Amino acid sequence: MTQPSPAAPVSPPIPLPLTLHINLTLDDMAEATLAAAHPEMARNRRHMLARGLTVVLAAFIVIMGLSSGFSPAVFLHVVWGTPLLYLLLCMAPIILLWALHPRLAMRGMRTMLRDGGVREAWAATLQITEEGLTSTEPDRTTFVPWHRFRSVEETPRLVVCALWPYESTILPKAAIPADIAPALISWMAAQIAAPAAGAAPEIPPAPETAVRVTHSLTPDDYAEALTWQRDQPAARRRTQRHYMLFWVLGSLLLPIFILLLVLTDPRPMEWERITFLAERMVPDLLRNTLVLGVATFGFYLFRRRMAARAARKMATRNAAQFDAGPITTTFAPDGITIVQGGAMSRYGWPMVMALGETLSHVLVPLRSYGILAILREDLDPAARQRLLDMARAAGVPTTEA
Predict the structure, then answer these.
(1) What is the pLDDT of residues 106-157, one digit of tens each?
(2) Which of 170, 182, 216 is nearest to 324 (CA)?
(3) For residue 180, what are the contacts with CB-CB under 8 A and spacing of at least 6?
(4) Which terminus has fewer CB within 10 Å in the chain: N or C?
């Protein structure tokens, strides 16, 4: 990972502009997205381990205390006695999940990108200049000046110019001439840390039938957009499966623990004793399963609020990206043009996944290249209707609040 440090702009190691013709895949984009979001992912991984182990330890101590009484002797028995083995067995799934987190994150990112309509493979052209990076691919062209990038990250196969979490420009290392690759990467990092001044792109004139709106993006807007995006049908079905899996595994945890106690008990177990224990425990296990099911369903009902809170926290940690100035978005019959802070992007309508509305926003997800969030109050009724008509004429699914 290459983190830029403040430095004066340096001369490029080769004559510019440099044009690279590259081929990208969904796996490349997943790997690059995780690299750009590395600080967030590492933080989540640490929190998962610490909170998971804390909950398991607290639950174990409470169970032992209720069964044997709360005393220092019971605590020492947990630490030095046979229960330590059971405690480690209960902690093993949390530790295993922590160890597998990078692989699971990669798998989850692939699924999320497929849900977002990302193709399995596509060709692109990158042009590197002293002013910034221009990326051209079917139905999408973007120019990003160096000062808008956050950092340059490296993976074994890719160089990732991270704009902010979940958005980046990808350069496969195989496409960069080997003799200039190290110097070029260092130069790009220096440009990001101390960019040379460049002229801002001009906002193209809007056709008469276009809808142009100047708006801003705040952490609250981003939280609203991300929450809406994660509540779309495919993502909602996946969330339901995850909550159901949590309920099933959580319900099985105590029976498995009791079974381990029985199997490791050195005393012989008689059939009468087994049936007696089953008669005593089955009602308790059913009650615990019901309670966990109700709690899981409650968490599912509040998932939108929890997702909005998590999105707002992430946006707040990356607040600098919201200070890039006002956004000028032009919706025209041939596509969407976005200009902000010296950067310009143009998307054809095939790159638009949907056009949705909430009570406060008009939301336009752009096939995993981000999502536009525009306050409804920034669009007058006539402009909003023209926007809906353009989207429907382009075959874009629309939903109204």
Answers:
(1) 998 898 888 878 888 999 999 999 889 999 998 999 999 998 888 899 999 9
(2) 216
(3) 13, 14
(4) C
Asked if residue 338 lies in contact with residue 345, where contact means CB atoms within 8 angstroms, the answer is yes
Q: What is the pLDDT at residue 256?
A: 77
CA distance 384 to 401: 13
d(CA 369, CA 352): 10
- What's the rounded Cα separation, in Å, for the pair 96 and 86? 16
- The answer to whether the CB of 209 falls within 8 A of the CB of 323 is no
Rg of the chain taking only CA atoms, in angstroms: 27
Structure tokens, 299: 């968490």
Distance CA 231, CA 283 (A): 36
Provide the pLDDT for residue 279.
73
According to DSSP, residue 341 is labeled: T
Tokens linked to 304: 């939108």
Torsion of CA 162, 163, 167, 169, to 10 degrees: -60
CA dihedral over 188, 191, 196, 200, signed as positive or negative = positive
Asked if residues 84 and 78 have their Cβ atoms less than 8 Å apart, the reply is: yes
Mean pLDDT of the chain: 81
Beta pairing partners, 127: 19, 134
Does the structure show a pLDDT above 80 at 1?
no
Residues 240 and 366 sit within 8 Å (Cβ to Cβ): no
Q: Where are the alpha helices (DSSP H) in 155-232?
A: 181-193, 219-230
Q: For residue 346, what are the contacts with CB-CB under 8 A and spacing of at least 6? A: 140, 141, 142, 335, 336, 337, 338
Q: Which residues lie across from 364 on neighbouring strands?
A: 372
Q: pLDDT tens digits for 186-229?
A: 999 888 887 656 556 677 777 788 899 998 888 888 888 888 88
Place of tokens 């525009």: 374
Residue 363 · residue 228 · CB < 8 Å: yes
pLDDT classification of 165: cutoffs 50, 70, 90? low
- In angstroms, rounded to a whole number, what is the distance separating the alpha carbons of residues 248 and 211? 50
